[in-house]
Specification:
The structure is a single chain. The chain is α/β, with parallel strands linked by helices. The chain folds into two domains: about 170 residues, 3-Layer(aba) Sandwich (Rossmann fold); about 70 residues, Alpha-Beta Plaits, CATH 3.30.70.20. Helix content is about 35%, strand content about 20%. The chain contains eight helices and eleven strands. It has a five-stranded parallel beta sheet, sandwiched between helices. Strands 3-5 form a two-stranded parallel sheet. Helix 4 links the parallel strand 6 and strand 7. Helix 1 packs parallel to helix 5. The protein is globular, with a radius of gyration of 18 Å. Bound molecules: flavin mononucleotide (FMN). The site of flavin mononucleotide (FMN) has 26 residues, from helix 1 and strand 6.
């Protein structure tokens, strides 16, 4: 069974492609994460766990969800991470989580996809040809990954150096606390009050009040689901996002039309 979380569609694409190629079922974990539902998930076929990379590791809310949720049936677990180019210590965390759950770690694959993090000026926006190139390259890589999983082979994981772990583990929570506030999110007059942002927020930080989204709490996962998936482009993050394009994998699906 393919288990996944995806905010802007990259990881969903990967998960659904693998499900199709392996003739297996894909389960979107969003609703379970939102409901804090840790009821067991059973599969007689290997678990293939797919997630994006946040701040050099697998999203912490996703890792927490995996730790708390019994996975029954198959004892084998593959992990697939998408990122904008650096999956950091995701593989190391995956191995550790699998070990603690008594699952056989079958390796992890890292796939570079378009970066979706638009609420900072640290990363330049990718040009359209580069976005298209990354999606094509990912689709090609998936053929090999699906083949290896189908043959029950281990995936060859990138070596994660100790210094990466030593830097990321303390850096991640500091970054999240200082840089992932919610106070700059706002809905402009374009908002139609559809509530999609609230439905997609994995941490339930958005409430619709008088037909408009209101962000609660001090910080969130900054997954970009709300701002990138708003059907009318009504959500901004301060002034940083005002002139930026929105990214969703679905906008670029045409790249794969001949596949
Ligand atoms: C909060 C946040 C942090 C991110 N951190 C990284 C990172 O450390 N390295 C990287 O290469 N990409 C990073 N990204 C980019 C995403 O991992 C990448 O675009 C991913 O494919 C998005 O998957 P999705 O479309 O399934 O949500 C980050 C994105 C977000 C939203």
């Amino acid at each position: 069974m393919i288990l996944y979380f995806s905010a802007t569609g990259n990881t969903r694409f990967v998960a659904l492609q693998l499900a199709e190629r392996l003739g297996d079922e894909a389960l979107d974990l969003l609703d379970r994460i939102k409901r804090d539902d840790h009821s067991p998930i059973h599969s007689d076929r290997p678990f293939v766990i797919c997630a994006p990379t946040y701040v050099c590791e697998m999203p912490r809310f996703f890792a927490d969800y995996l730790r708390k949720t019994p996975l029954t049936g198959s004892a084998a677990a593959y992990f697939i991470f998408t990122s904008g180019g650096y999956c950091g210590i995701s593989g190391t965390l995956a191995r550790s989580i699998a070990g603690k759950k008594g699952l056989r770690y079958m390796g992890c694959a890292e796939l570079t996809m378009p970066r979706n993090y638009i609420v900072t000026d640290h990363y330049p926006e990718l040009e359209k040809p580069e976005i298209e190139r990354r999606i094509r390259a990912c689709a090609e890589a998936l053929e090999g990954i699906a083949g290896a999983i189908g043959r029950a082979e281990r995936l060859k994981s990138r070596h994660v150096w100790l210094f990466e772990v030593a830097v990321t583990l303390p850096f991640n929570p500091v970054w999240c606390r200082l840089k992932q506030g919610v106070s700059s999110f706002q809905a402009t007059d374009k908002c139609v009050g559809c509530g999609k942002c609230a439905r997609l927020c994995p941490l339930n930080r958005i409430e619709i009040v008088d037909g408009r989204p209101v962000w609660h709490g001090k910080s969130c996962a900054h997954c970009m689901s709300c701002i990138q998936n708003c059907p009318v482009g009504a959500i901004e993050y301060g002034q940083i996002t005002q002139k930026k394009n929105r990214y969703r994998f679905e906008k670029y699906r045409y790249v794969l039309k001949d596949r």
